[in-house]
Design a protein that fits this description.
The protein has 6 helices and 18 strands. By secondary structure, it is of the alpha+beta class. The strands form 3 sheets. Strands 1, 2, 3, 4, 5, 6, 7, 8, 9, 10, 11, 12 and 13 form a 13-stranded mixed beta sheet that branches. A hairpin with a 7-residue loop joins strand 4 and strand 5. Helix 1 packs parallel to helix 3. It is elongated, with a radius of gyration of 39 Å.
Length: about 300
């Protein structure tokens, strides 16, 4: 038996408006099921909303409340995320004077700072790169995280960590920036990204500030490079110019070599923690026998003397 849409509407209205509630096979629920089976699929869908009128409305209230609560929670989360990433990160700065200091970075990496050094880093690393800025000298041991490269900005160069253990020396008055690798691998590049080199253990990249170029050198004993962490100085066949540079940075005093010929005079010596600058210069003077030094104001001047 076929029913028109109008007839179906009339039958459903009569069921809803009935003051009596038939039971069993004549109940509204059972009647609707039988009616549904007799209708084509399209008519079943059209008639379905009318049946929902039989369901008490108060049953949908908890669902609505839960939906509203979920929407509010999602809005709060999205607002917090937007605020978190839109707000500039809080920057931390650690500086040393005549002391050395160990710094624990937010990712678990460590940096040991030499005398007269400044390290700046965000309170939390939330960018793709874990970037810090260095002036002075520091030895880094970096936590492994290939998804977030660790980068040290040292004036005009960037040191990207591919390994774990390295030393960067970037004092403002030095004509060069030195990066020495002890373990792993690092990539060193200039700020323009036009020059890049990858270091292997026991190698140093020396960046000449004036020329704007790198030089790769071998380091037979890289432990001497980080002897400053224990307050020691280890010079192995090093030029007086290099020794003076290291002493000047460590003691925070300007030292000038007046005679060009003295700059390449080489020394092998070892000095322990706590020994004064005067004591070190006196021993070097005795060993060389070709220079003297004097202090004028806050500068030490080294001059050549005839043996």
């Amino acid at each position: 038996m076929n029913y028109s849409d109008q007839k179906i509407e009339q039958l459903l209205e009569q069921l809803i408006a009935s003051t009596r509630s038939p039971r069993g096979r004549f109940s509204a629920e059972e009647g609707y099921k039988r009616l549904r089976h007799r209708l084509p699929i399209s008519k079943r869908l059209l008639s379905a909303p009318k049946y929902h009128l039989l369901i008490p409305k108060h049953r949908s209230l908890p669902v609505r409340l839960m939906s509203m609560a979920a929407a509010i929670a999602l809005l709060c989360i999205l607002s917090w995320v937007a605020y978190y990433y839109a707000t500039p990160p809080v920057m931390c700065t650690v500086s040393t004077l005549a002391e050395r200091k160990s710094v624990l970075l937010p990712d678990g990496s460590t940096a040991v700072l030499n005398h007269f050094t400044t390290l700046t880093y965000p309170e939390r690393f939330r960018e793709k790169n874990r970037k810090v800025s260095l002036t002075g000298e520091a030895c880094f041991e970096v936590s492994h995280d290939p998804q977030h490269p660790f980068i040290v900005q040292a004036e005009a160069i960037y040191v990207q960590v591919l390994g774990t253990h390295f030393n960067v020396e970037v004092y403002p008055d030095n004509p060069e920036i030195r990066t020495t690798l002890l373990q792993g691998a690092v990539a060193v590049s200039n700020s323009q990204g036009t020059e890049r080199m990858i270091l292997k253990p026991n190698e140093s990249a020396i960046y000449n500030k004036e020329k704007g170029s790198f030089t790769l050198t071998a380091v037979p004993d890289p432990t001497s490079t980080i002897a400053w962490q224990q307050g020691n100085f280890i010079f192995q066949n090093e030029s007086l110019q290099e020794i003076i540079r290291e002493l000047s940075n460590s003691f925070g005093i300007s030292i000038r070599i007046d005679d060009e010929a003295l700059r390449n005079y080489r020394f092998t010596a070892r000095f322990a923690d706590g020994e004064s600058l005067t004591y070190i210069l006196d021993l070097l003077q005795q060993q060389a026998g070709c220079f003297s030094y004097m202090q004028e104001n806050n500068q030490i001047i080294i001059q050549k003397v005839n043996p």
